[in-house]
Every structure is written in structure tokens, then in C-alpha cells.
Amino acid sequence: MRLISIDEYNPKLMQLARPIFDKHRRILLGAGRTIHPAYLERLVALDIRYLFIEDATSYGITMDEMVDVPTWMEAIEVLKNVFEAVTEKKELPIRDLQKQVVLLVQEVAKRKALFLIPTSSLAEELREYAHSINVSLLALQLAKKLGVSQKSLNDLALGCLLHDIGKVFGQESEHHARSGFEFLRKIREVSLLSAHVAYQHHEAIDGSGEPRGLVEKEIHEFAQICAIANVYDNALSKDGLAPHQALEYIMTKSGTLFPPALISLFVQQVPSYIPGTKVRLNNGRDVIVTKIVGNIQRPFVRYLDTEEEISLGDHHTLLITEVLDS
Question: What's the CA angle centered on 189, arms 188 and 194, to 5 degrees?
């Protein structure tokens, strides 16, 4: 299995490896199918940009470290209900949200590495919720390596899930962080720590952030973690950057937007090249990434011409020079 741009899809060589969902979480197309040209046009009209496919090149690649799709979709549905409840001034379904927090913490705990599902693999109406789920997953992965306690992990996850809740009130830029905080701090079941994650997720350690221009230690570490995850997932899903490009972009913000120590740890936890990615090595040969074991930035790869599989961790002179299209 591998992830491709929808423009790369070839019905003669590929079939779907994961279902495609509409805005109501209904399956538009199931796994194991080829996509008829008419359906492909519909998916393009829905602005779905990525597909999970199976083909001869990607045989044996399982992507086991990718977040569980049913868990991801259920969390999206719950968060969608939360945003709608706030919009309609109804009672917040806090218990459903707390249940999802526990499930997301468990999802991250059982994986050594974490591969995100791009929000652009979904219908556009679901993406803002999927983004918040991805931010929570990334933040939990980073916090796990920091040895954060279970209760604090829950607070972090809840804050990340609700970091953009202020947008419900029609506010953008610095205003949505402030209005989100003002809303969350009045909810008894939401800790003040979670509320501050939403309040400070657009602050920067050099004082250039919003809404208060806080600097360095004035910004809570959990808000900094949320901010890194937020920028990274936006780079992937909104800006369309490949994982290695998004990671490089994050690294350029070390010491200005984000603390260098957190950026260093983030780079150690997020792979530049996920399984299924075709790349070229500095020896001129083309390979496909098959799995990540041990060093997250030095994956196992399989030569496309001979099918020999090697670990880049064992071949220190081999470097990835280019990402290839299908």
C-alpha cells in the first residue's frame, strides 16, 4: 500500500487500499476497487487530493504505524458534533469528547512511530476537524517522548482538539485564540491547561506571535507542542508539502517560532519519508520506502529494479536525493 496524489492514479495498475468517505462519513468507494473515470471526476470535484492504493510496486508495504482509520473517522465525527453544538449554542457533548481523548492517547501509546492520514484525503467539509485530530496525534507523539503523565496527556489532547474552537465565533487571526480561551475556561470539565493550549497556540518564542506577544517561558510547553503540530499539519494538508518538505519548513522556525529542543525532538519522531514513497538515492537508483525500524529518518527501502531490500541505517553513504512521482 502507498499514498499517491489523485493525479497519479492509474486504473489499469492500481486499486484502492483504503475507503473514501464523504462529509457524512459514508463510504463513497470501498477498498479493493478500481475507480471509474466518472467517479474520479467526482472525487476531484470534492477536492480530494490523495488516495491510498495497492499496486505491484507497493506489495508487502502495510503502513502499520498509520493511525487506525475507524478511530480517526470516529474522532472526526465527534469533533464535528462538538463544533456544531457550540455553533448552535447547545450543550457540549463533553463525555463523547473525553472518550475520544482516551482513544487517541491509546492510539499513540501503542505505536513507535506515527504516520498521519492527510486531511486532503477527505471531503473538504471534514478537513477542519481532521486537522485538529492530526494536531492532537502529533502533539501526543511528542509529549510521549517527553515523559508527560497520563492526566497531562489528556489535558494536552483536549486542548489540541479544541485549539480552533474560537473560529466558531467568527473570529480569525489572533481573535480566535482569545475567544476560544474565553469559551473553554468557563466549561467546568475543561482544565485551565487545556484552555491555555488553545489560547497560546499562535504565540512564538521570539515575541512575534498572537494574541499577546508572549516570549519563551511565558508560553506553556503544551501550547508550543500544539503550535508545532499545527504548523506541520497545515504544511501537509493546506500547503500540499511532502512530509520531508514540511519537516524542513518546521526546522527553519527553530529559535524563532519554536524552541530548538522541541524542534529537535519533533524531527526525531516524525518521518521524512513514509512507507510507499518512491525516492532516488545518490547512487542514481530508484527505490521505494518499505518500513521504518529504529532510526526514523533512515528507513528500509527496496530497489525497484532488483527488489533487493536494504536499510539506509546500515548504508551510511546512501542518501535520498529526490522524491519521485508514480
Answer: 100
